[in-house]
Structures are given as C-alpha cells and as structure tokens.
TrEMBL record:
NCBIfam families: oligo_HPY (TIGR01727)
Name assigned to this protein: Peptide/nickel transport system permease protein
GO MF, one example: ATP binding
Top-level division of the source organism's lineage: Bacteria
PROSITE patterns, per database record: ABC_TM1 (PS50928), ABC_TRANSPORTER_1 (PS00211), ABC_TRANSPORTER_2 (PS50893)
Keywords associated with the record: ATP-binding, Cell membrane, Membrane, Nucleotide-binding, Transmembrane, Transmembrane helix, Transport
Organism: Kineococcus rhizosphaerae
Length: 653
C-alpha cells in the first residue's frame, strides 16, 4: 500500500538537518517588500516611459521655441522649457533612452564576461581558476576612468564603446563574486548527489549551479546598473556621448548646472529622474538581497548528528548471511589495498590504508567502526568522490570487472548512478532546494535512459511508490517534506538508474528513531526485491545486524575484521570487534554502566608502527607493538588483523 508520511510538526525537528535551505521563488519574496515593490514600479515606469518616448512625448525634443525659453512648469510644458525653449519633459523621455541604453550595454558586457568566467573558475577550479584569478588581478589594476576617457578619445566619443569598456573593466570584481558563490554551491551535497546519480557536468551547472547564482547576480546587476548610470551621466555631463542637440540626462544636467544661478528649477527634472532611478536600483538591490537571504535561511535548529539510540532494531541478526564465496572472481566489487590520502600532492595524510573489500552481487556488506576509522572515505573513494584534496594513492577498485581507479570524470559518470549509486547521511541537503522532488527524480531517471515526458512521469511515480511515497509528493519542494520522506526520495533517486551496487552512508543517522526503523525496513525490502548489492556504512550494530550479511570492521584506516554477520556477533575474532560489541548500547543493562573502550582512535598522523588498536587493547603484548600486524585468515570466509585470535575467541565465548 502506498503511504504518505505526514509532515513533521515544527516541534520535532529531529530528522531535519541543520543546514537545510528553504526555497520559494525569489520574486514572490521581493513582492512582499513594499520598498522593493515601489522601486520596481519606479523602474518599470522609467523604462516604459523612455521606450514609449515617441508616443508619450508631448513635443519634439529638438524643437526650439525662443518665445518660451526657461519657462517653469505649466499646462503647455508640464516640466517647463530649457534655455532654447525646448520641452523638458520630452527631452527627459528621449534622453532616458540614451542613458538606459548605455546602462544596458555596460551591464551586458559585464555579464557576458563575468558569468561564464566566474562560473567556470568556481566550478572547475584548479589551473583554470588560478589563471582566471590572475587575469582578474590584472583587470582590477587597470585605472578604469583613464581607460574609458582614452577609449572615448580613440573612438570619437562613441558612448557604446565607452559603456562596453566600463562593463569589461568592471567584470573583474564580478568574476570574483560569482566565483565565490559557485565555489560554495559546488560543495553542496545535492551537487555531489547529482554527480553520483550520473548527471552530466554541463547539466549540473545549468540546473543546480546557475539557479543558485541568480539571486546574487540580480543584486549585483542592480547595483552595477546604478553605478553605471552615474558614470554615464558623468560622461555626458563632460560633453562625451551624443553631441547636442540630442537629449541625454547627463547633458541636461550639465546645461541645468550652468544655469543654476538664474533658473534652479531646470536642475530638478533631470537631476530628479537620475536620483530617483539610482535610488530605485539600489532599493531593488536591497530587496533582492534580503529576499535571496530569506530564501536560503536555515529552517529548524536540528541538533548535531545523533548517534542511534537504544530502541533501534534488535541486535540479533535478522538476515542470514548471503553466500558470498569470497572469491574475487564472482564478486561485483573487489577492492584491494586501497590507500587514500588528503592534502598537498606528495605530502598527503593517509587516512585509509590498505583496505580490502569484496562485495558479491546482491550481498549487503556493513562497514562498521568508530568515528574517524575511515568508513566514509572508503565509501567515497569507491565512487571517485573524494573531493579536490583527496586522492587514491594506491590500490585497486574493480567494479563488475572494470578498474575504477584512474578513470576520467566522464568514464566515472558512466559507472555512477547506473552501476553504483549512493545515498548519504543528510537526505535533505542532498536535494536541491530549488526544484520539486519529482524534477530531481526525473533528472536521475533521464540521466540513464532516453524517456519521453509521459514515460518520465510514470517512472517518477513508480519510483515514489517503490519507496512507499504517494506519487503526489513529486510536486512538493524539499522543504515541504520531512526528513524521513527526504531519505525515501534520495533512495528513489539512487534507484532511478537501477544500480547494481548501492552505497548507503549512515542512511538513518539524521532521522529520528521511528523513522529510522521505517527507512531500514524499506531498504531491506527494496534490496531483497531488486537484488541490489549494498555497502552500508554504520556505527550501529543494530543496523548491521538487521540488514547485512557480512560485517567489515574498520579501525584507524584499516580493516581489522571481516566475517559473516552472525559469526561476527557470536564469535568475534578481533579485540576491537569484541570491545565494540560489548559497548553496544542495545545490550545495555538498566542500572549497570555501559562498558566503553578506553582512549580514542589515533588520528591518521599518529598511527603506531604495530597494531593500531594496541594502546586500547586488553590483549596487547610487545609482539603487537613491534611490527605491523598482517591480515590473517581465521576461519572459513573470515579474516582478522590480530595475532591473539585464540585468546580473543576464548574471551568471546
Ligand atoms: N576532506 C578531508 N580532508 C582531510 N581529512 C579528511 C577528509 N575527510 C575525512 N578525513 C579524515 O579521514 C579520516 C576518516 O574519516 P571518515 O569520515 O572516513 O571516518 P568515518 O569512520 O566515516 O567516521 P564518521 O562515522 O564520523 O563519519 C578522519 O581522520 C578524517 O578526519
């Protein structure tokens, strides 16, 4: 039966991540601001009146009538006449066309340069970013006023060339602004999620990055337009631009300024319209900035990521271990000697060190271990998603017979989504706040198959039903659904490409306990129905027991034990596994303190030469501390990185 999870009341924010942007349209928010509306109306009137000047102007703006020079406002000439008896209102209307065209030219030149370069530098990064930043430094060091005056001198006073050069010279500052916005968006989880779903880079930029830039872009354009209007007026005031008698706002101000002693009124219409237009542009920029910030204010103050508490599923393994055979030949995923480091090339800090992992088709493998043991980094490395400062230093990741280490972005994209998909810890932040849920599922579905519009709609509805959501949820935005629903949507997106392997990185950590159980139940039934293999990262033995056939225990960047789940629970063969199981909160006895593991996981740069768990281990001897401990076969289909396996076995029994 299809169920729709009710919206979570505000008092239960547990399943909502702290940094979830709320998105509604930008313009509706601007329209709620009286000053923004007033500014917009003024600008519309100014632009419309200038465009309609030939229709609206009561007189010919060039027509001189020396009988009516410097007359104040009256019935014939609403805003009076100038020193040659020309109608001020008509000149103002025609002058607006000239001035606003100049603003438009400068803004267009700035946008044509700043948007592509800012977006590319921020999104692509690396060498391109450095080159663009150096070019910006050069651009910003050029004295703009002198260049503009030189351009006017060279191009015979052409205001078009002057305004384009203003736009070009200003673009440096805007490249930096746009770049920094894109840098932030690039790190958003929903961008990573789109990449994992196999969406192309160009499409990610168009669909996810540019919409996030829109608010900032509009604010900057408004402010730049105001500044450009001032520059344009100033140049016309200095007699650059169209020669007299053609009307311009700047020229009218210059003429009025020369007569200010004898006829101060003349300065009011031209100065007033420039001041009003500039003010309106600034107020509009303010309203846009506020609306944009409100649009991305963070809703709900959810606490820090919570560890699952008692009350989660029972620890007794619910699923029989899948027969894996452990032969690399029939494994879907074969990881050998995976070594991952972060930092400057050549000086990386190794955080995952020689991990081996096999996942058979349809098998569910749990990666378990304390915080910082390298589970997430291992999972991300499988998909080539380590970010700019992380890289695979050694080892191999073979998926369905294909080596993934060393593949290009394009080649990896073929594997992501359709081959391997991922669901993250924070469902809400992996959804783009700007798009409806249905559009995001559709995007993932289309990334892997050519589908017509009706087919896409049908596929989205099917996927929503598969994750036990009402297809009507497709019309909602991420902020209109609860954390549990968001995780189901994230699962639907992951399933859209019908992956053979699903990597689930603590998929229930950010959810509250009841929702956790529902999502786990959903994952289990989907896995059993589709036969998708799963690598499940978790701290929680309850979750491992509930879903997994095999448990792989990690400590300080290494796999310390790997065994079928039932064997792991009943007969652990590594002191760390034993200690973790004994300190499992699900086994807490009321009134008795829960055993804990003394000490902490050593940070990557402080790993000891010998066994990395030795400092915290009750079984440790000098032998453990003197040399690295290799992985040992300790029974059918199981390994342990411990030289005291027999003593551990006795203690565990
Ligand atoms: N981007 C990064 N840059 C530098 N170090 C990192 C980065 N990401 C992770 N690390 C380091 O790698 C180590 C392993 O981290 P990882 O997130 O894989 O641990 P984990 O076992 O998944 O922990 P948790 O359960 O808390 O997520 C940690 O020491 C962590 O500080």
């Amino acid at each position: 039966m299809t169920t729709t999870e009710p919206r979570r009341p505000a008092s239960r924010p547990a399943s909502r991540p702290a940094s979830r942007p709320v998105s509604t349209g930008l313009w509706p928010r601007v329209l709620r601001k009286p000053l923004g509306v007033a500014a917009g109306v003024v600008l519309l009137v100014v632009v419309a009146a200038s465009l309609a000047a030939p229709v609206l102007a009561p007189h010919d703006p060039l027509l001189q009538d020396l009988r009516v020079v410097r007359q104040g406002p009256g019935a014939q000439h609403w805003l009076g006449t100038d020193s040659l008896g020309r109608d001020v209102l008509s000149r103002l209307l025609f002058g607006g066309r000239q001035s606003l065209a100049g603003v438009l030219e400068a803004v267009a030149a700035m946008l044509v340069i700043a948007v592509p370069l800012g977006v590319l530098a921020g999104y692509v990064g690396g060498l391109l970013d450095r080159v663009v930043l150096r070019a910006v430094d050069v651009l910003l060091s050029i004295p703009g006023t002198i260049i503009t005056l030189a351009v006017l001198a060279i191009f015979d006073g052409s205001m078009l060339v002057a305004m384009v050069s203003v736009g070009v010279l200003a673009s440096g500052a805007f490249i930096r602004v746009f770049r920094s916005v894109v840098l932030g968006v690039r790190r958003e989880l929903y961008v990573g999620a789109a990449r994992v779903a196999g969406v192309g880079e160009a499409r990610i930029v168009l669909r996810h990055v540019l919409p996030q830039l829109r608010g900032v872009l509009l604010v900057q354009v408004s402010l730049f337009a105001a500044a450009t209007l001032g520059i344009q007026t100033g140049l016309a005031f200095l007699s650059f631009g169209p020669p007299p008698p053609a009307p311009t706002w700047g020229g009218m101000v210059a003429e009025a300024a020369s007569l200010v002693q004898v006829d101060p009124w003349l300065l009011v219409p031209s100065g007033g319209v420039i001041a009003l237009t500039t003010l309106a542009l600034c107020l509009l920029a303010d309203a846009l900035r506020d609306a944009n910030q409100e649009r991305f204010t963070f809703a709900g103050a959810a606490g820090p990521r919570r560890r699952p508490a008692a009350g989660s599923p029972a620890v007794e393994p619910a699923v029989e271990p899948a027969p894996t055979g452990r032969s690399a030949d029939d494994a879907l995923l074969v990881v050998r000697g995976l070594r991952v480091g972060f930092g400057e090339p050549g000086r990386e800090t190794v955080v995952v060190d020689g991990v081996d992992l096999d996942v058979a088709p349809g098998e569910v493998v749990g990666l378990v271990g304390e915080s910082g043991s390298g589970k997430t980094v291992t999972a991300l490395a499988l998909l080539g998603l380590l970010g700019a400062n992380g890289r695979v230093l050694a080892g191999s990741v073979r998926f369905a017979g294909r080596e993934l280490v060393g593949l290009s972005h394009r080649e990896l994209r073929e594997v992501r989504g359709a081959g391997i998909a991922m669901i993250s810890q924070e469902p809400m932040v992996s959804l783009d706040p700007s798009f409806r849920v249905g559009a995001q599922i559709a995007e993932a579905a289309r990334a892997h198959r050519r589908l017509s519009r009706p087919q896409v709609r049908e596929r989205v509805a099917d996927l929503l039903r598969a994750v036990r959501l009402d297809p009507a949820v497709a019309r909602r935005f991420p902020h209109e659904i609860s954390g549990g629903m968001a995780q189901r949507v994230a699962i639907a997106i992951a399933l859209a490409g019908e992956p053979r392997l699903l990597i689930a990185d603590e998929p229930t950590t950010a959810l509250d306990v009841t929702v956790q159980a529902e999502v786990l139940d959903l994952l289990r039934s989907l896995q059993q129905r589709t036969g998708t293999a799963v690598v499940l990262v978790s701290h929680d033995w309850g979750v491992i027991a509930d879903l997994c056939g095999r448990a792989v225990v990690m400590y300080a960047g290494q796999v310390v034990e790997s065994a079928p789940v039932r064997a792991t629970f009943t007969a652990p063969r590594h002191p760390y596994t034993l200690a973790l199981l004994r300190s499992n909160p699900h086994d807490a006895v009321p009134g008795r303190p829960l055993p804990t593991i003394g000490g902490v996981v050593p940070p990557p740069r402080q790993w000891p030469v010998g066994c990395r768990f030795a400092a915290r281990c009750a079984f440790a001897t000098d032998r453990c501390r003197s040399a690295p401990v290799p992985v040992l076969e300790v029974g059918a289909d199981r390994t342990s990185r411990c030289v005291h396996v027999d003593r551990v076995a006795v203690s565990a029994s």
